[in-house]
Design goal:
By secondary structure, the chain is of the alpha+beta class. Helix content is 20%, strand content 34%. The chain is built from three helices and five strands. It has helices spanning 35-52, 57-63, 138-143, and strands at 16-21, 65-76, 85-95, 100-109, 115-127. Strands 1-3-4-5-2 form a five-stranded antiparallel beta sheet, with helices on one face.
Length: 153
């Protein structure tokens, strides 16, 4: 985690945290982490959290249901550089119990505690075979219950 002199100020309590390290392949011509890498870290963190909740792709296939991205929103606040450890936090902040799910994200430099990015992803439940939106199964309603309350989510 962050050093004792730089504690992490999470936007909401009790996040699920996935740690990543900035690798040479993540660096762009500006000598910082390329913006699309942050998006891939959000996706990886969402999957890791989902698996921790007991829902992996095999589970999706058994139910013929899955949550897919409808929209991303990212606000880049500071750069990260090769070798740095990044803490990617996520919270489920919305689940309408029908079709839609929202996750919020916060990325923090593990050494400095500086927030690098805030983001959100909206998901929709689909029938995997048809690709069409469909009502989420009860298992998703239970597993993907909100972990943080955010006005408007």
């Amino acid at each position: 985690m962050a050093s004792p002199t730089s504690p992490v100020a999470w936007d909401w309590p009790d996040p699920f945290i996935h740690e990543v390290r900035v690798e040479p392949r993540h660096i762009d011509d500006f000598q910082h982490t390329n913006n699309v890498v942050y998006l891939s870290w959000m996706a990886k963190t969402a999957w890791e959290h989902s698996k921790a909740l007991g829902i992996d792709f095999a589970f999706y296939k058994r139910l013929n249901r899955g949550m897919v991205v409808r929209r991303h929103e990212l606000e880049y606040l500071a750069a990260s550089h090769e070798g740095e450890r990044i803490l990617v936090a996520t919270w489920i902040t919305g689940n309408d119990g029908r079709l839609r799910l929202r996750r919020r994200f916060q990325m923090v430099n593990a050494e400095t505690g500086i927030t690098l990015l805030r983001g959100l992803t909206d998901f929709v439940c689909i029938d995997i075979e048809s690709g069409r939106a469909t009502r989420m199964p009860p298992q998703f309603i239970v597993a993907y219950r909100p972990t943080a309350r955010v006005e408007g989510d």
